[in-house]
Structures
1.
Amino acid sequence: MYSTRQRSHHASLVKLKDAFTDRQNHIEYIKKVLKTKADRPRAIYIHIPYCVKLCSFCNLNRVKLDSSVEDYHKLIIRQIKSIADYEYIQSKEFESVYFGGGTPTVLSAKQIEAILKTMHDLLPISRDAEISVETSISELTEEKLDVMKEMGVNRFSIGVQTFVDRGRRQLGRRGSGYDAIKKIQKVIDKGFKNTNIDLIYNYPGQTKEELYFDLKIIKELDIAGISYYSLILHEGSMLSKLIKEGKIAEPPGIEEEKIFFDIIYEELLDSGFDVLEITKLVKKNRDKYQYIQVKNRAGDCLAFGNGAGGRLKNYLYYNQPTISKILYKILPVSPMGKVITNNYNVVDKMIGQVQFGYISFNQLDAETNEKMYQYCKDFIDRLLENGLIKKDGNKYKLTKDGIFWGNNICSDFTERLINFFEKYD
């Protein structure tokens, strides 16, 4: 059914980005929302766009460390204070806090402590909230670990990518695989049982033996979960340039990529892992990944920091770094945004379900759900015929092959659902 694999959910987001825009004045809309009570699941996202070293494969919203990081925590704190007192913010607890980047742990222990203290003092954080921090092994100092433990951090996502030294050098990771193993073990021994790693596979020259080595370490360290990605060659990345110049070989093709995927999937599911998301395997009862649970249910995401994207009710916004402080005085949240209709929420939730590994037509009234199913039936039938989904009660569950092609399914399903609402709404 597919010959070219989409390796991220970006294509779905692009299609959804320009759909279902409500043309009402977004400034007036969010002013009204902030005076009401919240009624949906919610998370906080804090973006730290700095890295000590830029990975060879990365094109994310980040910059190499410079002096501007020294006052960056003050920006976050100022943004928290500007919005904290509104009824919409205070009326419902946040069930997840996620520090992303970049590498959030490039901040000093005092900066991290100041942000977390302000957040706990001013925002209604649930007592059992998941507070998660992305990091690399090299920035996790003893002082930072102590501060984060004291301030309630209970989940780490560590960008290991691979424990194989050759692969680490190629991907631009700092330190050896042995260094990574020692640091992760130290983090877990310190009480952070919900420690996760990112794993990249199908990078140039990778062998099955190297992949099995990574999986062996994952099992031995008792890691709570992994986010696993086939290497994406981003235009403009250092790795992409080296491959174009012939200095590094091309990554293996789709056949080898599928073999590597199958090895990861089968090895870890046989070792006590479950599928949480199409790119996420977790140990049972260890990692709920609450942040992505909220996002995939079209929940609120209160976003802080330059480059962060968020949503409050039906207002989607982006914290553009160049926004004047004067504009923030007009509105306590970034004015760079738009209002979306409820149809956006319906599609967003249904695509979120695919990310969780299943398809279901249950978001609206029975008549509309049936009409939507009939509109999508030929697509569902093709997925069934190609063995990418199987019937599971009143929903369709992605098979192993379906998970491999999951982002393709998301993209096509998004387009089909958008067309449905354009025709029948």
Note: The chain has a mean pLDDT of 91.
2.
Amino acid sequence: MVESVWSILPPIITIVLALATKEVYMSLLIGIFSGALLYTNFNVIEAIMTMFDVLADKVGGNVNILVFLVILGIIVAAITRSGATRAYGEWAAENIKGRRSAMLLTAVLGIVIFIDDYFNCLTVGTVMRPITDKFKISRAKLAYIIDATAAPICILAPVSSWAAAVGSSLPENSEIDGFSLFLQTIPFNLYALLTMVFMVFIIASQRDVFSMAAYVKKNQEHFIVPKEYRDSEEEAPLGNGRIIDLILPLLVLIAACVYGMLYTGGINEGKTIADAFADCDSSKGLVFGSFTAFVFTALLYLPRRVISFKSFCETFVQGFKAMTPANLILCFAWTLSGICSDKYLNLGGYVGMLVSANTDVVMFLPVIFFVVAIILAFATGTSWGTFGILIPIAVAVIGPNDANMLAITVAAILSGAVGGDHASPISDTTILASAGAQCSHLDHVSTQIPYVLIVASASFVGYMVDGYTMNGWYGLAAAAVILAVVMAIICAKVKPVDVDH
């Protein structure tokens, strides 16, 4: 069962069950157990042991992310209880004129926070959710905007944790400079670039299609808070907080997280900012930043009696409860990814073997790698794992001498990996976008997938043109034309849904 076609079965079971039953926790658990059964040749006792071995290993390796989420939940709960969120919402209602402005501001903030996708998802959601709720913007729409400005922005930013991941995916002793290769891929990363364009179009035209349109219309008539987040919002503000009591903790959070990443990357040892980001441990940086912001928030609120000591302590439980859905899904998603890793079922090794055996026609390499990257990232829920599997294969097949074709093909891998990750219900970025927007996870997935497919289809055509012409700029132009035609059809056939009043 290891490194065979059966290795793709667990993620398929998970995704099909999740979309069919709308029960993501049980679907993930069944997918994990099915993978453990395959690995142990259907020995039930060993499968149970294996399942929890993987869970312990993956959760242990990602504990900083879980701690970051909980501390951030506590900070958000404290800000809400202080009354600062209420003051911020009242200001926004007076100064931000309409839904379109609120969504554009959300997108701009997501683009500005390009350092790390986890940090992006949760920070943008925390800052913008009070505003978008005021204008009855559906949380599924907010989650889409957050997700569209997380991984797609990070994969285009030279100074980010993602640039480092791409460089580290190159084979050891490679003659290729990873950072230079990454820079060459930026203009040919079709999915990421076109996602930005399509997102701005959806916001500016106020037109939504497929399931997103139904969610947007329903929330305009009666705004819906997902049931898993209602308990965390029932606590009424108790304090006399002002807008500054929201802004200062978030500024400290951003600054401390950025410094934490730079510190773990060696900025104090004389490294440049770019090198420090390339070598950073982003999870340690995030947990350092969140704890620093937590201490700052306590020092800001308690001496001024913005909120009582008792109420502040109560936010510990509230914050933990608010992040429980995201933490639970993340733990299960990491475990499923672990079951599919090279240590167990080795799904990546099987896909890599298939790709290596079917790369005879050079002109089809970009589109082949793009499609395989989408499928692999969708099935495993990880972009970085997809990079690590496919980039070495591309380097081995093309070699360092054809720099142009290598840049286009690696761009196709990055593009497909982000696209598959963007659509996958078991992707950590998708999960955190749902958590940041406090949106039902499967609502976010089901409304986002049609938009992903639109952009991915245009990108597919672009990479076909890339391979035929051996010129990435022609592929970019072709993909842009296809997307422009789709947007023109939407404008002609669809009436504005998310309209301002």
Note: The mean pLDDT is 84.
